[in-house]
Amino acid sequence: MATFIPLISSGTAGPLGVLHLPRLWLKVSLECSGKLDSRYPGVGRGYDMMTINALGLSADPVVAFIKAKKPTYPQFEAWVKAQPGAKLDKASIDAHNAAVLGYIHDDETRQGILANNGLPDDASAPKDAGHRNDLDSWQEFHDAELK
Question: Is the dihedral of CA 43, 101, 9, 115 positive or negative?
Answer without folding.
Answer: negative
